[in-house]
Amino acid sequence: EAGVAQSPRYKIIEKRQSVAFWCNPISGHATLYWYQQILGQGPKLLIQFQNNGVVDDSQLPKDRFSAERLKGVDSTLKIQPAKLEDSAVYLCASSLAGGVTDTQYFGPGTRLTVL
Amino acid sequence: ELKVEQNPLFLSMQEGKNYTIYCNYSTTSDRLYWYRQDPGKSLESLFVLLSNGAVKQEGRLMASLDTKARLSTLHITAAVHDLSATYFCAVTNAGKSTFGDGTTLTVKP
Question: A32 contacts in B (CB within 8 Å)?
Answer without folding.
Answer: none
